[in-house]
């Protein structure tokens, strides 16, 4: 079984010569580089300034975000308590509940540890 695409997490990857290819987003990568990147990172998730995040941390949103289906977005400076780190889709690796918005997934690059 082939690994999912590192860009879009698609399960429909296939081999083309020495590369793996994602038919959904077109990303190409070598299986050796994907294994070494995963081993080097070790599953550590860092915020926008490089602090290591853990389950239960409180973070602050550093950039205003638009939310589909909601007339207003999430404003910069919004505190998010009790985050949970997950293997999300498309880089969304924080699972949380934001007051006034409900359950949501965020990218670690738009938050700062409080």
Secondary structure layout:
Elements lengths: L13 E3 L2 E3 L6 E2 L1 H11 L17 E3 L17 E2 L3 E2 L6 E7 L3 E6 L3 E3 L1
Antiparallel strand pairs: 1-2, 2-3, 4-5, 4-9, 6-7, 7-8
Report on this model:
Belongs to the YjdM family. By secondary structure, this protein is mainly beta. The protein has 2 domains: 1-38, N-terminal domain of TfIIb (Single Sheet); 58-113, SH3 Domains (SH3 type barrels, Roll), CATH 2.30.30. Helix content is 10%, strand content 27%. It has 1 helix and 9 strands, in the order βββαββββββ. The chain has one helix at residues 31-41, and strands at residues 14-16, 19-21, 28-29, 59-61, 79-80, 84-85, 92-98, 102-107, 111-113. The strands form 3 sheets. A 3-stranded antiparallel beta sheet has the order 1-2-3. A 3-stranded antiparallel beta sheet has the order 5-4-9, with no helix packed on it. Strands 6-7-8 form a 3-stranded antiparallel beta sheet, with no helix packed on it. A hairpin with a 6-residue loop joins strand 6 (84-85) and strand 7. The chain starts with 13 loop residues before the first strand and ends with a strand.
């Amino acid at each position: 079984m082939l690994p999912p695409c590192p860009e879009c997490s698609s399960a429909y990857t296939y081999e083309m010569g020495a590369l793996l290819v994602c038919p959904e987003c077109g990303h190409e990568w070598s299986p050796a580089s994907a294994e070494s990147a995963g081993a080097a990172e070790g599953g550590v998730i860092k915020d926008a300034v490089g602090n290591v995040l853990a389950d239960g941390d409180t973070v602050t949103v550093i950039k205003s975000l638009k939310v589909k289906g909601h007339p207003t977005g999430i404003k910069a400076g919004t505190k998010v308590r009790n985050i949970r780190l997950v293997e999300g889709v498309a880089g969304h690796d924080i699972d949380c509940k934001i007051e006034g918005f409900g359950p949501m997934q965020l990218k670690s690059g738009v938050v700062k540890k409080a």
